[in-house]
Amino acid sequence: xxxxxxxxxxxxxxxxxxxxxxxxxxxxxxxxxxxxxxxxxxxxxxxxxxxxxxxxxxxxxxxxxxxxxxxxxxxxxxxxxxxxxxxxxxxxxxxxxxxxxxxxxxxxxxxxxxxxxxxxxxxxxxxxxxxxxxxxxxxxxxxxxxxxxxxxxxxxxxxxxxxxxxxxxxxxxxxxxxxxxxxxxxxxxxxxxxxxxxxxxxxxxxxxxxxxxxxxxxxxxxxxxxxxxxxxxxxxxxxxxxxxxxxxxxxxxxxxxxxxxxxxxxxxxxxxxxxxxxxxxxxxxxxxxxxxxxxxxxxxxxxxxxxxxxxxxxxxxxxxxxxxxxxxxxxxxxxxxxxxxxxxxxxxxxxxxxxxxxxxxxxxxxxxxxxxxxxxxxxxxxxxxxxxxxxxxxxxxxxxxxxxxxxxxxxxxxxxxxxxxxxxxxxxxxxxxxxxxxxxxxxxxxxxxxxxxxxxxxxxxxxxxxxxxxxxxxxxxxxxxxxxxxxxxxxxxxxxxxxxxxxxxxxxxxxxxxxxxxxxxxxxxxxxxxxxxxxxxxxxxxxxxxxxxxxxxxxxxxxxxxxxxxxxxxxxxx
Length: 574
Known about the structure:
Layout: H1 10-15, E1 24-28, E2 36-40, H2 46-101, H3 105-110, H4 113-119, H5 121-151, H6 157-211, E3 236-242, H7 249-257, E4 266-272, H8 277-292, E5 297-301, H9 308-317, E6 327-330, E7 336-337, H10 341-345, E8 355-364, H11 371-394, E9 405-408, H12 409-414, H13 425-435, E10 439-450, H14 456-467, H15 470-483, H16 488-523, H17 531-561
Parallel strand pairs: 3-4, 3-6, 4-5, 8-10
Antiparallel strand pairs: 1-2, 6-9, 7-10, 8-9
């Protein structure tokens, strides 16, 4: 460091002598890491001056340096927190992907994910989920133990819990119970209305069973299909709309091509709406095989895909050759009709010019697969055995199920054809046909095989499609219902029973009452539900839902013992 000269005047230094001249004075701070000052000077008061100046500079430097130290520490802490947050987010994303995929790093590294999932996907995911749940429960338990140990001796838990409970009871009785009781009363009223509707429908089904009411064709029995001139074999167009149906397209095409009907009197339209080129090639190849075997079948694919199923059917009905056909039968890709399906449905149209639709019921090949399929079977058996049959017998109207039905083409055209305005195109065309005066017939003894969704995800998607469109359709059809010329009681049935009660109130109240309000009343005793709402009426409704299932089982048993058995669908061409 350069020598320090003349800080407090040269004269004083000369008068005072040369005692401090050229003598280095070193002042060290308390913290040696901060600074060292070398001072060359003289004077009698040099030591006092150095002590005073050093103290001032030390205080200034101490304040600034402490500030910068704290800023540096805060910067490091922020960086560490950011890194921890990023790592936690990445770890959470990885854990979520593993939970969804049900795999580990070793499977992904070895490229064996697909093989492992094919071998035992359910057990692997079950074990993985069990491990995650166990770790979560252990973490919560340890957290409770730590909180209890931390508060031991500091907080009187008994007094705290008692005070919290008293406050919660007061808040619950004042603010929670009144609105909950009001909502519960409203749901109870809706529950009673819906229960009365189901009770009357069940009584109507019982009346049909006792009186043995059964729709019968006005024409005599059909003659042999090998001689079309000897009987009533009108021209029938059979449509199979499908979209990316890799698993079931062979079975559905085979079932339709094996229908017991003169080959020259029906044409099969395979309406492929797939966006997968490989699937399109497979379906087209299957159609070509059946065409070479003598079946009247055509493959149709729309380049401009719009309107989903309704758009697909609308495009197919615009073909020029459709005018040569009188009826159209529709089967979804996962439906497999029996060979005598047309023989048991088409004769109902003869000499019955007001009949627009003949609907068959569904039967399920996988109804005993798991608990979900069993519950669906119970629900759908009530739908077909009670709802569809009663409405078909007494008012000649019900919702078209979208498949396993035969339409008079004139009724479809008179109703305005297929429309893409809603996701429930089947219900839409049924309502419009009913407003035009067309009648419907439901055949409870004619079945068409299909499959039920076996997973909750597939079931959820199906129910979303079925329940997302009726209210939109009601909004669109309400002006037409009011202006149409049908009798008043049919208008009331459409508005209050068909739409409001069964399409809006039923899904709303059933979930709200039994999944939200009923569990909440267990924790809010001020809001009460009558015992007959919680126990007696649900037991009666459950009994009414199960009875059609057992009747259907007995009918199926006698039906299976008869000569008519389900067709054995080949996996390839005959």
